[in-house]
Design goal:
Helix content: 25-40%
Radius of gyration: 19 Å
Number of helices: 8
Strand order of the largest sheet: 3-2-1-4-5-7-12
Strand content: 15-25%
Order of helices and strands: EHEEEHEEHEEHEEEHEEHEEHH
Distance between the termini: 39 Å
Largest sheet: 7 strands, parallel
Shape: globular
Structural class: alpha/beta
Length: 286
């Protein structure tokens, strides 16, 4: 295996995905700094930086040098001002702080979302597809992607589809209450397991030491599936009956193509929901 030199890595917005990523990178011999407002929840081994990306004056003591920056923030709630602050403004604040402290990372990863796609009629989308989002979340995410890609740092945007995994039990809870999704009209959904989010970012980080990365990767598993198929399968696994079908919380209907990511050499640990959900179902039943 290609042995990497030990590097200092900054994970801004070091939540669930960031913390697991940090542990992976520490296991490879890197030194990892996790930046977040509350550093008490960081796993042992990740060095905490207590800072608020919306407050530039808290970003004045960044480690030097930094080889790689991962920007993996979560808005917390669906509010336009909060999104603006978390994504485009927060990223710009961090980039400004790096520049002011003469820190020049080799690589920047901005973690984005498939919310940037506007397609909603079962179309396949990939990295070349048009993005004309009509909602503020997609528009702000696209704005932040452009800030990253024009930052002057070698930057790669990774667009995750719907993340599921430990602690993300919305659909399991809904189905367990007997609520599924209607079969008509079919609504395609796309997902990626939390462990594959971590795996993708670890893979791309390692790859970035061997070759220049492309500016954009779409990260979603192999199997876009209609929501009613997923909910019906989950009901079967949970041993419950669907007694109500509701279309709430469904946005559009598109199918994500992960060919570029797989061509880069990534192999999914959980290529579809049949592989990813059994462990979650066992934990949910306990």
């Amino acid at each position: 295996m290609h042995r990497l030199n030990k590097n200092q890595i900054l994970i801004a917005g070091c939540g669930d995905v960031g913390s697991q990523l940090g542990l992976n990178l520490i296991a490879q011999g890197h030194q990892v700094f996790g930046l977040r407002r509350n550093i008490n929840q960081l796993p042992v081994g990740i060095q905490g930086i207590a800072a608020d990306l919306s407050q530039p004056d808290t970003l004045q003591a960044l480690p030097q040098p930094i080889d790689t920056v991962f920007y993996i923030v979560s808005a917390g709630r669906r509010d336009q001002a909060v999104y603006q602050q978390a994504y485009s403004q927060g990223l710009q604040n961090l980039l400004d702080a790096l520049q002011q402290q003469s820190i020049k990372p080799r690589q920047l990863f901005f973690i984005s979302s498939t919310a940037v796609y506007h397609q909603q009629h079962d179309e396949w989308v990939d990295e070349t597809s048009a993005t004309i989002p009509d909602n503020f979340s997609g528009q702000i995410m696209l704005e932040a992607e452009n800030i990253a890609l024009h930052s002057g740092i070698a930057a790669t945007v990774v667009r995750f589809s719907g993340i599921y995994g430990p602690g993300r039990n919305y659909m399991l809870g809904q189905v367990n209450r007997g609520v599924g999704y209607p079969a008509e009209p079919p609504r395609y959904s796309n997902r990626i397991h939390r462990d594959d989010c971590v795996g993708v970012l670890t893979h791309l980080h390692n790859l970035s030491h061997q070759q220049a990365l492309l500016p954009l990767y779409l990260a979603s598993d192999d199997n876009p599936a209609p929501l009613h198929e997923v909910s019906d399968w989950l009901a079967q696994q949970l041993g419950v009956e669907i007694t109500e079908r509701s279309a709430r919380r469904t946005i559009g209907s598109k199918r994500c193509n992960n060919t570029r990511l797989k061509q880069s050499g990534y192999r999914f640990r959980y290529p579809d929901y049949h592989a990813g959900y059994p462990q979650l179902i066992q934990a949910f039943k306990r």
